[in-house]
Write a structure and sequence with these properties.
By secondary structure, this protein is α/β, with parallel strands linked by helices. It has helices spanning about 5-15, 45-55, 85-100, 105-110, 110-125, 140-155, 155-160, 170-180, 260-270, 280-290, 300-310, 370-380, 400-410, 425; strands at about 20, 45, 130-135, 165-170, 190-195, 210-215, 225-230, 240-245, 250-255, 295-300, 315-325, 340-345, 345-350, 360-365, 395-400, 430-440. One of its GO terms (molecular function) is protein-arginine omega-N symmetric methyltransferase activity.
Length: about 450
């Protein structure tokens, strides 16, 4: 799972061509990308459709498309750039040379971005025990390489010699690329391995009782979501499924009473009631006269992943970074995604997730307040600010803006231009870091 950040998305629109809204999503693309075999003949719940559209081995956007991930071949010398204009010009050149959809911050700011993450681990980890790191969705391997480089240079020799770094990557093409990137340093090879599998599949994990670290950079935005829907303000929530229309050429939504346990658990974390119990007469009349459909996207993929991780890695510390909001979202509903692709140099946004059947990225904003609640829920901790529970906290969590995180753990001088402009600190207003570590206060 690998994604991009909104600034790069906007820049890719500007640098390559104008943004285009697709009016005929099936017109100019190979039918393989739009094969309805993603769901087959039977209806599927929304999260399974999104998972297939992104990760299906034959049709998924990421499974066969390592080219969607941009790789910056050389470290950018920010100190040699005059300012923002020079930086934007350099990005323009990089996009034209590589013809990729997105550059991620770990690529644009390598090795400094990964070094900041490594420093945060070294300050917090108990270095008296072997350091174990897991990365979910390692992309091209740039983060793993940067972290291992930093630990080799800055940690005690025994820490580096005894460390292990495991990347869990669902894309076979990206898994191969990661092994190549990290393998460029001979001493890293014996400490690094990549497992090509779905991190949310519990069967792929063996329980690790020792303390360890889990890194997820721009992963949460590509995790499958579900939709719940109600016809108006006082009608009960229903779960949404995707099915073929009778002629089989298009897809549509269908609505069913709530039955899915993952959806119900996610609603519980959100404190959403399954039904509006005994609404007043005035509310019922108002809903009939002025009906307002309700639509909510639930991060059920995040809930499932954290349930698996907390079960397999009970003493894990977590570092996650992602979007806190997305601009220009066209779809309805709270936490709705952007669905975007690039075709013939044009960036195309779709109006519906149903139009993305393997040819487009589907990415969501991260509600960090909700992420914190899910993290506590999956670890067995009381919810944040839940004064009614007598259970002790098992997690200590903090949410930081990217600029605050890099100011604390990174080397901001390395990404500063001559006039003081610093794209790493100045441009990432829509991204945050989430840090979560275990505690021993469980009374």
């Amino acid at each position: 799972m690998f994604s991009r950040f909104v600034l790069s998305k906007a820049q890719s629109f500007f640098f390559n061509t104008s943004k285009v809204i697709s009016s005929d999503p099936f017109g100019s693309t190979s039918s393989d990308f739009f094969s309805t075999q993603i769901i087959g003949d039977n209806p599927v719940i929304v999260r399974d459709f999104i998972h297939g559209a992104l990760y299906d081995p034959n049709h998924g956007y990421f499974s066969q498309r390592s080219g969607s991930v941009g790789v910056v071949e050389r470290t950018i010398k920010f100190n040699q750039l005059e300012g923002q204009k020079a930086y934007m010009k350099l990005l323009d050149k990089l996009y034209k040379q590589s013809d990729v959809s997105w550059f991620t911050p770990v690529e644009l700011f390598k090795p400094w971005y990964a070094h900041g993450i490594a420093e945060s681990i070294m300050r917090t980890a108990d270095l008296s025990v072997p350091l174990k790191i897991f990365e979910i969705g390692g992309g091209s391997g740039t983060c793993a390489r940067g972290i291992m480089d930093y630990i080799k240079l800055n940690a005690p020799t025994r820490v580096y010699n005894n460390m292990t770094y495991t990347s869990v990557e669902i894309s076979s093409s990206l898994a191969k690329k990661q092994a190549e990137t990290v393998g460029e340093v001979a001493s890293h090879s014996s400490k690094f391995k990549v497992e090509c599998r779905d991190a949310a599949d519990q069967s792929g994990w063996s329980k690790v009782e020792q303390p360890c670290w889990v890194i997820m950079l721009e992963v949460l935005d590509n995790l499958p979501h579900d939709i719940i829907y109600s016809e108006h303000q006082v009608s009960p929530w229903m779960e949404v499924w995707v099915e073929k229309k009778q002629d089989g050429s298009e897809l549509s939504e269908s609505y069913r009473p709530l039955q899915d346990s993952l959806i119900k658990n996610c609603m519980n974390v959100l404190d959403l009631e399954e039904d509006d119990m005994s609404p007043g007469i005035a509310a019922r009349i108002w809903a009939k006269v002025f009906p307002k459909p309700r639509r909510c996207w639930l991060p059920t993929g995040c809930l499932k992943l954290l349930q698996v991780l907390h079960g397999a890695l009970p003493k894990m510390s977590l570092i996650a970074s992602d979007f806190s909001y997305l601009p220009d979202v066209r779809m309805h509903g709270e936490r709705a995604p952007l669905v975007s692709t690039k075709r013939d140099g044009h960036s195309i946004d779709y109006n519906s997730y149903l139009e993305a059947k393997g040819d487009a990225d589907i990415f969501f904003p991260t509600d960090f307040w909700l992420l914190e609640r899910i993290d506590h829920y999956c670890s067995g901790s009381p919810m944040p600010h839940d004064k009614s529970s007598k259970r002790g906290k098992k997690r200590r969590t903090i949410i930081l803006d990217t600029s605050a995180f890099m100011d604390e753990f990174g080397l901001p001088t390395k990404t500063r231009t001559k006039d003081g402009y610093n794209p790493l600190l100045d441009d990432f207003k829509n991204t945050k870091f989430y840090l979560s570590v275990p505690t021993h206060n469980t009374k």
